[in-house]
Amino acid sequence: MTYADLEDLASFGLTANATTGLDTYELERQLEAASSLADSYLGGRGYDLPVSNWGSDLRSAVARIAA
């Protein structure tokens, strides 16, 4: 599960021009890795994982990490 998607990556992490020509599979892998990192922080703060509800703050953070 990822906390951000490709649209979030384009909105918060990278410009649309920056992702042109990049493999969608690789971008999704980066979002998965960034979401796993977010889980490690959230779990350390006592949140039950996986998080079932999240807002634009987490989407933005994950997209920026993936970028």
Descriptive report:
The protein is mostly helical. Helix content is 66%, strand content 0%. The chain contains four helices and no strands. The protein has helices at residues 6-13, 16-19, 24-44, 56-66. Helix 1 (6-13) crosses helix 4 (56-66) and helix 3 (24-44) crosses helix 4 (56-66). The longest helix has 21 residues, at 24-44. It is elongated.
Features:
single chain; 67 residues; mainly alpha; elongated
| Intertermini distance | 17 Å
Summarize model confidence as the mean pLDDT.
Answer: 93
pLDDT < 50 stretches = none
Largest sheet: none
Range of strand content: under 5%
- The backbone outline, from C-alpha atoms, is elongated
Share of helix, binned:
55-70%
What is the count of β-strands? 0
- Please report the number of helical segments: 4
Backbone structural class: mainly alpha
Rg, alpha carbons: 12 Å
The succession of helices and strands, N to C, reads HHHH
Describe what is shown at a glance.
This protein is mainly alpha-helical and 67 residues long. Helices cover 66% and strands 0% of the residues.
